[in-house]
Amino acid sequence: MTQDNRTVELQDAHVVAYLQEHPDFFERQAALLNNVRLSSGHTGRTISLQERQMEVMREKHRTLESRLAELIHIARDNDAIVEKMHQWTRELLRAGDDAARPDIVVRSLETTFNVPQVALRLWGCKPAFAGLAVAAAVPVETVTLVNSMQAPYCGMNSDFQPATWLPGKGTQARSIALLPLRQGAGAQAFGLLVLGSPDPERFKASMQTAYLARIAETASAALARLVE
To answer: For 8-36, how does the pLDDT look when each residue is reduced to its tens digit (9 = 90+)?
Structure first.
């Protein structure tokens, strides 16, 4: 840094310090504002301080408008999801036949949430439900994996064994979500919901899983009576 540059910086610092100590300076010297010239952030031409302030205010206004539009969009999406959750829960509550509940869970997830592929497995079923398709044998390593999950998994279908439960043995599922079913926090899982999609972005790893966790809790409450 040259001596001239250091001198300019010191002079600038003195000016800044003075203005901070005397915030009414430009009120007392209002005529100076007409002589202050700045470069426009948009056109590059020289403009007055007042014009530059107006540019800054307009830019802040545009930023706030964009943020507000984003928040409105998020709120509408959330409202739509809440309404779907309500419809789905209501359909599960209407189910009178316990043996039909697994099919209702799967079918209603497909239709209400537009999930292309859904699969469900339960282990430790009561004898009365042992013959259901969802009670088919599950590998021990899969049960161990599900028991270790504290939250739903979302991401690419990396040849997970549960993905083979999906239609076509999961060959069309590019992304999946795994939702453990359990009775209460910390309890051992008694089942697993698998959601699949040919869209690799449908269940991407970075997505929020709060609503998927609610789906898992609701499904768990509806299906708990089928297991020991």
So the answer is: 666 878 877 887 887 777 677 666 766 66
